[in-house]
């Protein structure tokens, strides 16, 4: 078998496609000690990013005294070596992180997990729901309305007992590869239909034409025939 293989390899002429190398993910991580505190992120944008500036801004926003190392593993996919699991917890809780209106989608690093297996398109956002009638504003209704946007992770009732509130905040995991939802039609008492407006807090730039995050209206990917998102 070994002889056969040797023979075959000698005769082989490698096509361009075949000559593309497969890189081991772990070659970047000669020392994965302390990986329990690491995170991995992807810049979900078609815009050109100055990474050095981005790293600097993130470091200052994260407000951490320890050294933070950034390692680009693949275009726009960046490993962030934090030193403290509590810092990691805090940063993930405070998702989403935006740089210059671009989303840096952050998730936990998992040892030996391939880059392709990470899910970056699902990101939590705080969303304001307007117009839900006050007398019908209960947990069930809020969950129902919230779930039309994405998976509801938390509800912020704000000052419910204090009387009138203008909106409710919900933390929702949103698939940013899908067009953004801007309203929810709510059918309330006596079949009265109400349009609930949705406002996204701290949201990255998105296209008003196709409703997808990561490019601006002037550069709509649907128009230019560009298939690749990010
Ligand atoms: Zn577009």
From TrEMBL:
Keyword Endoplasmic reticulum set for record: no
Keywords: Metal-binding, Zinc, Zinc-finger
A GO molecular-function descriptor: nucleic acid binding
Entry-linked InterPro entries: At4g02000-like (IPR040256), DUF4283 (IPR025558), Zn_knuckle_CX2CX4HX4C (IPR025836), Znf_CCHC (IPR001878)
CCHC-type domain boundaries: 207-220
A Pfam family reported for this protein in Swiss-Prot or TrEMBL: zf-CCHC_4
Stored PROSITE patterns: ZF_CCHC
Zinc listed as a keyword: yes
Protein name stated in the entry: CCHC-type domain-containing protein
Organism: Gossypium barbadense
Lineage start: Eukaryota, Viridiplantae, Streptophyta, Embryophyta, Tracheophyta
């Amino acid at each position: 078998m070994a002889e056969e293989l040797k023979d075959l390899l000698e005769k082989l002429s490698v096509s361009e496609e075949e000559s593309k190398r497969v890189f081991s993910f772990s070659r970047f991580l000669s020392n994965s000690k302390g990986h329990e505190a690491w995170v991995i992120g992807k810049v979900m944008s078609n815009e050109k990013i100055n990474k050095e500036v981005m790293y600097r801004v993130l470091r200052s926003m994260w407000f951490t005294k320890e050294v933070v190392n950034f390692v680009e593993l693949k275009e726009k996919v960046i490993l962030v070596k934090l030193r403290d699991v509590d810092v990691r917890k805090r940063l993930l809780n405070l998702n989403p992180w935006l740089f210059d209106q671009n989303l840096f989608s952050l998730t936990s690093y998992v040892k030996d997990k391939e880059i392709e297996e990470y899910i970056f398109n699902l990101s939590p956002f705080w969303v304001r729901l307007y117009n839900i009638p006050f007398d019908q504003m209960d947990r069930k209704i809020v969950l129902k309305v919230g779930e039309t946007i994405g998976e509801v992770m938390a509800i912020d009732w704000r000052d419910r007992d204090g009387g009138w509130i203008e909106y409710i905040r919900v933390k929702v995991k949103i698939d940013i590869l899908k067009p953004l939802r801007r309203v929810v039609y709510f059918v309330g008492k006596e079949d009265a239909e109400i349009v609930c407006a949705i406002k996204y807090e701290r949201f990255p730039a998105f296209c008003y034409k196709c409703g997808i995050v990561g490019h601006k209206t002037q550069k709509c990917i649907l128009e230019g025939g560009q298939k690749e998102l990010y």
